[in-house]
Amino acid sequence: MHFMHPRYWLLWLGFGLLWLISLLPYRLLAFLGRGLGSLLFLLAGRRAHIVDTNLRLCFPELADGEREKLKKQHFKALGQAVIGTGINMFASHRRLMRLTRVRDRQYFDTAIADGKPVILLAPHFVGMEIAGLVLAPERHMLSMYQPIRNPLVDYMVRRGRERFGGIMIDHRAPMRQTVQLVRNGSPFYYLPDQDPGSGDKVFAPFFGIPVAVTPGFSKFARLTRAEVIPCFTKLLPKGAGFEVIFLPPLTDFPSGNLEEDARRMNETIEQGIADMPEQYFWVHRRFKSRPDGEPRLY
Q1: Mean pLDDT of the region 23-42
Q2: Burial class (CB in 10 A: 0-12, 13-18, 19+), 95
Q3: How many CA within 13 A on the CB side of residue 143?
Q4: Closest among 140, 199, 145, 141 to 170, alpha carbons compared
Q5: Where are the domains of the chain?
Q6: Choosing a second label site near 31 at 20 to 30 A (CA), which of 18, 84, 104, 293?
Q7: How far is CA 42 from the centre of its chain?
Q8: What is the SS3 assignment for 144?
Q9: Strand pairing of 227-235 and 242-246?
Q10: What is the DSSP string of 237-284?
Q11: Is this structure's pTM higher than 0.90?
Q12: Based on the number of CB atoms within 10 Å of its own CB, is 153 exposed (0-12), middle (13-18) or buried (19 or more)?
């Protein structure tokens, strides 16, 4: 096996350490993770600036002290997610089920029972991988995937995400392949809120500020004729585990208007953030792309 080459030995050591850490009780992992997050808060540098900018733009009504408190809470949640990486990669499905409770699952179950194709709209909250892992054994859960340059890391990440029956699809794969799989009954676990960079995009308000959104999601929903169901994962307090939260399916979606669909998607993400503002992925440069003529924000 080519992964036995000496250049991979340090990586194997790191994965072994992640596996050992994952064996600890989750409440202890959460405690250690929040401690790590406090350290990350002190050492974050440019990432701290990104979080500051995002929080200032999205929560202008908060006083400076309140935003600083929210920033610290975010880094603690982020540290908990980092320590929990081994859970995502190695924990048994039985253990994940013990750690996870589900709210309003009937929206998902009803769509499946009615034979409808399903897209789960799963924004970037720090615990976002859990829902896909928990649901994967019931029917093959699809997710888009960008290959990682290091082949061992790529192999281990894919192995972790696919171990319960999930299907990782290279983002360069022909769309028709994914469309057919969704139409045939495999739910698509879609992470909607990444800046498309130089790719095709429309702008829609996010907390009142234009952000770039790929119109591909709206087009994909139309091609698959899928029910779009928001699905958020929440880290529960004091290391109690996770909560997977389903919201009602988006009605009249897609609408045929790309900007309107992007607006509704962002509005749905805002709804999730209202429930757990510290757990959104604020270290991501969500406002990186700007409409023509508008200044950079970072």
Answers
A1: 96
A2: middle
A3: 26
A4: 145
A5: 2-279
A6: 104
A7: 24
A8: strand
A9: antiparallel
A10: GGG--EEEEE-PPPTT-S-S-HHHHHHHHHHHHHHHHHH-GGGB-TTS
A11: yes
A12: middle
